Amino acid sequence: MIIDLRSDTVTQPCEKMRQAMSMAKVGDDVYEDDPTVNLLQEKAATLSGKEAALFMPTGTQSNLVAILAHCQRGDSFIVGEHAHIYQYEAGGSAVLGGTLPKPIIENEDGTLPLEKVLASIKPKDIHFAPTTLLCLENTFNGKVIDLGYQETVCQTVRKKHGLKVHLDGARLFNASIATNTELKKLTAPYDSVSLCLSKGLGAPVGSVLCGNTDFISRAKAWRKMLGGGMRQSGVLAAAGLFCLEHNINRLKEDHDRASTLAECLINLGWQVKDNQAQTNMIFINDSEQTLIKLNETMKSNKILLSYGGAGNSLRIVLHKDITDEGLNTVINAFNTYQRN
Ligand SMILES: *Cc1c(COP(=O)(O)O)cnc(C)c1O
């Protein structure tokens, strides 16, 4: 059996989730007739403490729709240089939305330096692409972003400069569980939040975009234009609902297993980023040659890791399909690995 630690997107729907999907009451969601989609959206709105939510096919489309709903063509928005929105969404907001991203290099702790954010805000002036939005990400490479920082930066850019603030919360449930903080407390500083159901929560497909009623109605129009108006999508929403009901608290198991594995790796002399796991992720830093060899050897042992992301690091991601038995297999493989 293959142990896949490349990402938390690789999970299989369990039998009970498949049952929930097969039994789901459905209707045409473009007519807002799908009771299961409506239920998922209500639940997501409640959990995030926002007025409304919209079921999205992917996190990428969810972030894109958020930017399109917040910004006009010709606006600029501030975003982390290594944020998913800037690095891994194919420049969609520029290509399809005519917006100009202004990337800022993150601090070590994943925050954007406040003075740089403020200095990057362009006012309305014929020379500039006026800045109307700030996008942050939590967790960022698995790292939980300080809530006090988010409250300060969001309040400052909103009150002083009239910006909107969007959170890419693909893994916000991991942050919530890791810090024992209610999700809605983590979303409170923001106008809009995108949450992935298909990462650690374990749904096969889907994200939810949350915000106020007016924002969500604009988002719905953009989603339709982008081809994301789905029909009997309650079959998919049922999986998302199942996750929200059963898979949030169990994220702690992934974090605990990540900690256990990180400790083993450190004891074996591997250089683990920050000397600890980042929620459900571990990053090993070393030379390219060493990491490629490690990656290839593990692959031949049917253990898949992720090499080639940020810098010289190899990423290991824990998720619901990695049991204690799987973890032990991985630990044994590292114990017997010959570095030279
Ligand atoms: C996975 C991810 C997304 C987008 O998810 P897709 O559903 O794969 O489009 C957005 N932001 C972050 C931080 C992610 O990890």
TrEMBL record:
Top-level division of the source organism's lineage: Bacteria
GO process terms (BP): glycine biosynthetic process; L-threonine catabolic process
GO molecular function, one term: L-allo-threonine aldolase activity
Keyword hit for Mitochondrion: no
UniProt KW keywords: Lyase, Pyridoxal phosphate
Cofactor(s) named in the record: pyridoxal 5'-phosphate
Aromatic amino acid beta-eliminating lyase/threonine aldolase domain residues: 4-285
GO cellular component terms given for this protein: cytosol
Keyword Hydrolase: no
List of residues that carry N6-(pyridoxal phosphate)lysine: 199
Pfam families: Beta_elim_lyase
TM ranges: none
Subunit structure comment from the entry: Homotetramer.
Entry similarity comment: Belongs to the threonine aldolase family.
Protein name as it appears in the record: L-threonine aldolase
